Amino acid sequence: MDFVLVNGVPSSKKDANPGRFLWNSSVVISQDILFGFGGIPLLNENLDNIQSQLQSLSYELPPLFNNRREIFRLFKRLLNKNKYYRSGYLHLKILVSDQESNWLLEATNYKGFEFPNREQGLLTQISPFQKFSGAPFGRLLCHNRLFWLAAETKNEAGSLSRSIFTNEKGQVCDARGANIFLAKNGVLLTPSLDTGCYGDLIRRIVIEQAAALKIPLIESNEIDEKKLLAADEIFLASEARGIEWIMGIGTKRFVRNYSLIIHENVNAHLQVRAQKQLL
To answer: What global pTM score does this model have?
Structure first.
């Protein structure tokens, strides 16, 4: 039997009936949170991220979320009830209105133990739909979801999460739900936040791990389509999908090298984070 948490209370999924909250909820903020290595390594960062999203819409987290230790205990309890002992994702939804706030938590398990690393390369394209670099909350997930969904559903190729987005200045920004990194002549580049790109939690960790590996990395607002296609390697990074190597954009093909090294270090970093969390 699958279990969920409804406002912190365990319930079987079939009996949860979360639809009753939607009557009074004007905003739904959702986040996929990685669990693995016995813990939830980026829990605090995810909760901070959700709080930023809610505050950008003039809402606050439900009061229980002020007690991070209790939230960790409840989230782990759900994983144990579902007998999810390897790795996977917690799917958190915060439903808020002027009258009340409610929250729901589900979980999905996958067979691996490590942070995801997509073995099959992605074939991508550059989307004709452009983002706006001046969007005040462009780095936040909730302010990107509708744009990504609208742009991808109009994508002639019809393949979701396979487009790379630029802004009105022609600067490369991100992909759906992920940040983009490219390697050229031994240097990694990623779009700077002032391009209007989304700021996934893994973005900062990739930057930190590149520094630890002594790999030069530049945050740039000068990556255009020409520079993108001239790269030696391109990969995407996100908590929700892990590291995804881009095999090609249109007819252009890319090698695979740094994405494997970065994945190895990010995976080790998350493992350490999870172990410290359990102490």
So the answer is: 0.93
